[in-house]
Amino acid sequence: MTTDEKHIEAQQEAKLFFSRFLLEWYHLQKRDLPWRRHRNPYYIWISEIMLQQTRVDTVIPYFNRFIEQFPTVEALADAPEEEVLKCWEGLGYYSRARNLQHAAKQVKELYGGQVPDDRDAVFSLKGVGPYTAGAILSIAFNRPEPAVDGNVMRVLSRYFRIEDDIAKGPTRVKMEKLAAELIPEGEAGSFNQALMELGALICTPKSPRCLPCPVMEHCAARLAGCETSLPVKTKAKPPRPEERLAALVEGRGEHAGRVLIRQRPASGLLARMWELPHWPAPPAEAGGARGALLPEAAALDRLRRSMSQAGILARPEGHWMAAEHTFSHIVWTLQVYRCREEAALPLAAESRAVYGAALVERGDSALGAESGAAHAGRGDSTLAAALEAQPAEDAPLALFDSGDAAADAADSGAQRWISREDMKNYAFPNVFLKLLNSYFDEQGT
DNA sequence: AAGACGGGGCA
DNA sequence: TGCCCAGTCTT
């Protein structure tokens, strides 16, 4: 027998060992999770979408609420989008929620409300890629398909000492091929979950717990002492900083006790979520330290102009607090200013057009009374009208690239005056949820 | 192939 | 506080 043949034989033995002992460990150690209590393909599907980029402990309460509110594919397909988004509030990557509902409509219309068990059909669902397709097919239908996520790539790269960069596309394909070979006959669902469970509980990114690992004896990385340097992965580039001025506008008169919020556009960052209005801060003065707080007067002036341009009748009064919001590609620093709504005064003819455009969206219709789609496509004309009607002494804001065209286009979106009670009807990103709660706490309302 | 797209846990 | 985690869609 040649050296190569011996190597192949040893490799084969390592694979058999791995599959057998991992599966045995899983049957003894698996966690009791809500989506493991039934083998309902809909539950499996929802859980897998939620588990993308999100840990199990975070997902559990969201999963339970979601299933309670949308118990079936049809319930999800027929729900108002705002309700789905509200149910996803705080979970992040909100396009997952939109895609999920789109896919529910696909399942309802194309497959009679039954999650398909066919590879091409599952893969064609919006929001379902190679990993999720494999997870649904194997866990819900016990089909021998690989389900390779970050946990699986970490486990396999260590056990087989694979040094390929897991951030590269071809590496995932290679891992899928390997993972498929490891699936024991008739055990696809349990085996794929076992692989992920090991990655989550034992073979963790930082300091893997090798001693209780069921497959440590034949782990190539452990034997070579290099388990903490695997997997190889190119690191992401740091998020770019972005300074923004936000307005917490306190209502007066009929809006007393309420604050102004607006809805973001239908696409892009935080699509269709609600927020406090905010705009790019002007670049800091030359000589000033990067990220330095803008002089109060300059910030107040800037905010006054931004609000005026957005058709918000309010006067900035002073700095309230700062908040930070980190995305994977941007870091927002929000300087929040308290502002007071101004009573509408008799308007010059040319100013009326500015305010009129924004007032169209005002009102207090209940959740679901309108969809963001109703506003799509209106933005340009409204903004153009506002710019054109800008009074001469209040020159249009200098243009500079804020990097968030979506947020800046939100000037033409829907606005609402809300109390703390009304917050339950709108979906907010976490940073605004925290700001609004702080504000209402301070007010004692 | 690279960038867009949130939020939380850990040392 | 800074570092790490990572599926799918879009360009």
TrEMBL record:
Keywords: 4Fe-4S, DNA damage, DNA repair, Glycosidase, Hydrolase, Iron, Iron-sulfur, Metal-binding. Residues 50-201 form the HhH-GPD domain. It catalyses: Hydrolyzes free adenine bases from 7,8-dihydro-8-oxoguanine:adenine mismatched double-stranded DNA, leaving an apurinic site. Its cofactor is [4Fe-4S] cluster. GO terms for molecular function: purine-specific mismatch base pair DNA N-glycosylase activity. Belongs to the Nth/MutY family. It holds the Pfam family HhH-GPD. The lineage of its organism: Bacteria, Bacillati, Bacillota, Bacilli, Bacillales. The gene is mutY. Its EC number is 3.2.2.31. This is Adenine DNA glycosylase. The keyword tRNA processing does not apply. It is an enzyme of class 3 (hydrolase). The keyword Hydrolase applies. SMART domains: ENDO3c (SM00478).
